[in-house]
Amino acid sequence: MTLKEKYFIDIHKGITGLFMVFLMYIYGTWDSVTSWAYLAIHGTYGILWISKSILFPDSTWERETSIWYGLYIWFGLTLYWGSGWIINSGYFNDGIPQNAPVWLIGLCISMFGLGVFLHFSSDMYKHTMLNQRPGKLIDSGIMSRCRNINYFGELIIYLSFALLSMHWFPLVVLVLMMAIVWFPNMIKKDRSLSRYPEFEAYKKKSKLFLPYIF
Fold this sequence. Notes:
Layout: H1 5-14, H2 16-27, H3 33-55, H4 67-78, H5 82-89, H6 102-132, H7 149-165, H8 169-193, H9 199-205
């Protein structure tokens, strides 16, 4: 059987909700509003990711890989579960799970919704355009002003997870992931797109990662 990066990513993201339920069982946080809110947004993200992988897959993750690199991917993704562990264990609060204020819960849910829209709609747009206009530069629609709007949406999603934990550790994980995976992928993508004659004009009118900023 040929192993692909997507297999490791999809399975890990798909079981996120189950793992959060397991944490709630272990730490007895069934009455925690924050735990349920976190399960709702991170668990839903896992389900949406699987759906995306089936309906409009990203060719980036179709690369063949070894079991060892696959386990490396699992390790990196597992760090994202840190927010859920912090929320349910109360490890940094003398073992007492701490409920986030309602305004923060509301903010994180809103951020999650916005991030999902940007992340998934841009991936669907790219998938559709590649099928309809193969071999053409995608410089229109939701990607007209930001070349990596999908990563920007993902940033907002993971920020919602991190902020809900009310701890610095998930933020450090997110910064490391951006430095090790996201930005190298963005730079690699720009180099690949430079083969199109229209790319220089597109690069001038768009931003790399943060719309209208950077």
